[in-house]
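A reminder from the course coordinator: this example appears on the midterm review sheet, so study it carefully.

Given structure:
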């Protein structure tokens, strides 16, 4: 929807809030939003259907941490691991999430559920 607003050239000086959820909100799109909606608050929630919200990047953090998805959401723990356990900051790995908001499993697909759930 945000991309649709930008594509249509929508603009406003009003004080409004935009909330992005799901995939990473690209820094260039956020910058376009700031130009088109200079008084807007921008919030980014990163997550998936299976995990709910994982991280949040508040409006006040958008410029300083534009390439980030933010900090862990309330009651969510995250860890980035490589083959030998947690990796140092800045290194790539697989994201592991511990949260009370996890889904119970895929309907009629116990095998796939077992693959993604680690307790």
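Designed residues:
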């Amino acid at each position: 929807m945000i991309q649709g607003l930008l594509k249509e050239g929508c603009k406003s000086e009003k004080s409004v809030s935009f909330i992005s959820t799901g995939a990473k909100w690209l820094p260039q799109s956020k910058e376009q939003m700031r130009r088109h909606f200079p008084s807007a608050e921008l919030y980014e929630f990163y997550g998936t259907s299976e995990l709910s919200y994982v991280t949040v990047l508040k409006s006040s953090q958008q410029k300083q941490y534009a390439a980030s998805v933010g900090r862990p959401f309330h009651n969510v723990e995250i860890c980035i691991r490589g083959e030998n356990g947690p990796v140092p900051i800045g290194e790539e790995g697989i994201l592991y999430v511990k949260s009370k908001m996890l889904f119970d499993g895929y309907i009629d697909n116990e095998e796939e559920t077992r693959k993604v759930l680690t307790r």
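The first helix runs from residue 2 to 7. The domain at 2-116 is CATH 2.30.38.10 (Luciferase; domain 3).
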